[in-house]
Write a structure and sequence with these properties.
The protein is an alpha+beta fold. The chain is about 35% helix and about 25% strand. The protein has a four-stranded mixed sheet.
């Protein structure tokens, strides 16, 4: 069971491009985007999830994060492609909000991702944070 759950956006954050009016926050977009647009998207992402972040106190110790991706369409999406950028933005937001000292391996000791299915009305990534103790890390 997780200690915290967050609903993370995939659409409505990235700046429109010539080929897409509503691009997804995916690795393909991230790889090709101009750095200023990336910074704007990252700030917009954090602002969007800030109300969720404000509900919790700083996290003590080490954590694991599980990401569950819900696709907009049943088109065999690439899981890593959709979770990668959202994961980076989310973990950076945890640090910038003061909930974690850093997002390196001293604090986030594991993360995983899985496919949750199709949700046409609400494509998203859900992040589940579980606090772990030293015994779980060494097991």
């Amino acid at each position: 069971m997780s200690d915290y759950k967050f609903i993370l956006p995939i659409y409505g954050i990235a700046k429109a491009t010539k080929s897409s009016k509503n691009p997804a926050l995916n690795v393909n977009w991230y790889r090709n985007v101009y750095y200023r647009d990336n910074n704007l998207a990252k700030a917009k992402f954090k602002k969007h999830i800030q109300p969720q972040l404000d509900l919790i106190d700083p996290i003590k110790g080490k954590i694991k994060v599980k990401y569950v991706f819900y696709a907009a369409r049943k088109n065999h999406p690439d899981l890593d492609n959709f979770v990668g950028t959202v994961k980076k933005y989310f973990q950076d937001a945890l640090v910038e909000s003061g909930l974690l000292p850093d997002d390196n391996v001293n604090y986030i000791v594991a993360n995983s991702e899985c496919y949750g299915g199709v949700d046409k009305g609400n494509p998203r990534v859900e992040a589940f944070i579980t606090c772990v103790d030293q015994h779980e890390i060494n097991a």
